[in-house]
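Kindly go through the entry underneath: sequence plus fold tokens. Please state briefly how this chain folds according to its tokens.
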Amino acid sequence: MPECNIDAKGKVARFTGGLASILGALVLAGLLMTETLSFGLGWYAVAGALFGGAFAIYEARAGWCIVRAMGIKTPL
């Protein structure tokens, strides 16, 4: 398990961002399925947003941030 490197504010920010990313991916998937929106890499965008959102939620639950683990200072 990675060592905790974010506080409660960071956890909330990552969890909120993760949920927003997953919801955005679902909206995009709906638009692609109904052919309201069409572009070549649309399903890759959905997959990327789902993976990114799930990873952000994992970071929130673990209290760990990959960016901070690499030594980059984040504002939260």
Summary: The radius of gyration is 15 Å.
